[in-house]
Amino acid sequence: MKKIFIAGGAGYVGCQLIEKLLEKGYYVYCYDILIYGESSIKNFSNYNNFEFIKGDIRKPEVIKNILKDVDSVVNLAAIVGDKPCQSAPNSAYQINYIGNTRLAELSKLCNVKKYIFSSTCSNYGVSPNEEYLLETSRLNPVSLYAETKIDSEKKLLELSSDNFATVSLRFGTAYGKSIRTRFDLTINSFCYEAFKHNKLIVFAPETWRPYVHVKDMANIVISIIETDSDKYNGQILNAGFTNENYKKSDIIDFFKNKILDLEVVSVPIEDRRNYKVSFEKLYNILKLKNEFDIYDAIDELLESFKSKIITEKDFHSNSLETITDFFKDKERSLSLE
Q1: Residue 228 lies in a domain
Q2: Distance CA 156, CA 239 (A)
Q3: Which residues contact 62 (CB under 8 A, 6 or more apart)?
Q4: Rounded to an integer, what distance in angstroms lies between the CA atom of residue 209 and that of residue 244?
């Protein structure tokens, strides 16, 4: 039974990934500080191939003995997004960069075979034209979040070796229902606002983004785990699917087809992030296609709101305020000496 260690496993992507890995028979260690509580992983305690360790990625020494028995490490631990990083900049730098560096160095010392890092297409920032961006395209970060991810990618390139395979996955913008669904994401937020208010206010509707369903993100990580590392060791891969590049106005059309009397207000302000991304390199390595699309996500989320599977409480408990409240008194107390 291969053992997988997931930092940030209680989060939006992590809990979805853990569920799939457990069902496939992997032994999974989940390491998380539990910013949003433990509800996303509480049902995993029924599995005998699951173990949870509460901890801070900036202090990975406590799991040194566990890592000695691990095949692959997946680092999803991060303060994710521009606004959350702005609200807790010190913690964002420490967790997103310092924490990743320390975990990667310890993983290499403990002879872990694969280290999979969750990066972001936000690294591209703003593209002056509508060409599809490749992994070699110029980076133009416009946020602290992207800067911490770029620095982490560079560090992993330095650590990569024949015996320690590293790969950085630049994921598109996530969407879709998970065990713990985030609502600070474009499509998920649109779903909630459309359901609750029957109205959408859309800023910069003509800007491009690549999108990827949270379940497909889990599929990509699992495929990397199960693929020979010689095919991607020491590389950076755009992680998503080329057919899921959309302008916000395209996404609004999807919603209009689902909610016929939906009111849409477009606000044509400038957005500093605007980019289309090619995922052909990933496809050539994994031969993986997306299982889910935006229509699937909209249907599932709207139905979850209607049936009260997702409630107002869930929406507010996974908001920006949760991050802010968690770190506002801990920017110093959790800072590194």
Answers
A1: yes
A2: 17
A3: 53, 55
A4: 8
Q: Tell me if 133 is assigned to some domain.
A: yes
pTM: 0.94
Specify the CATH number for the domain of residue 86: 3.40.50.720
- With cut-offs at 50, 70 and 90, classify the pLDDT of residue 337: very low
List the beta strands (DSSP E) in the chain.
3-7, 27-32, 50-54, 72-75, 114-120, 132-133, 165-171, 173-175, 199-203, 208-213, 235-239, 245-247, 263-267, 276-277
Euclidean distance between CA atoms 25 and 47, whole angstroms: 10
Pick the closest to residue 281 from 234, 223, 227, 238 (CA basis): 238
For the residues of 126-165, what is the DSSP string, one character each?
B-SS-PEEPTTSPP---SHHHHHHHHHHHHHHHH-BTTBE
pLDDT tens-place string over residues 109-146? 999 999 999 999 999 998 877 789 999 999 999 999 99
- Render pLDDT for 294-328 as a digit per residue (tens, 0 to 9): 999 999 999 999 999 988 777 766 555 666 666 66
Q: Is residue 337 part of a domain?
A: no
The answer to the question of residue 336 being in a domain is no
- Domain around 16: 3-328
- ∠114-117-123 over CA atoms, to 5°? 145
Residue carrying structure tokens 């713990």 = 180
3-state secondary structure of 34: coil
Query: How many residues would you count in the chain?
Result: 337
Task: Answer yes or no: are the C-beta atoms of 172 and 137 closer than 8 Å.
Answer: no
**Domains: count for the chain:** 1
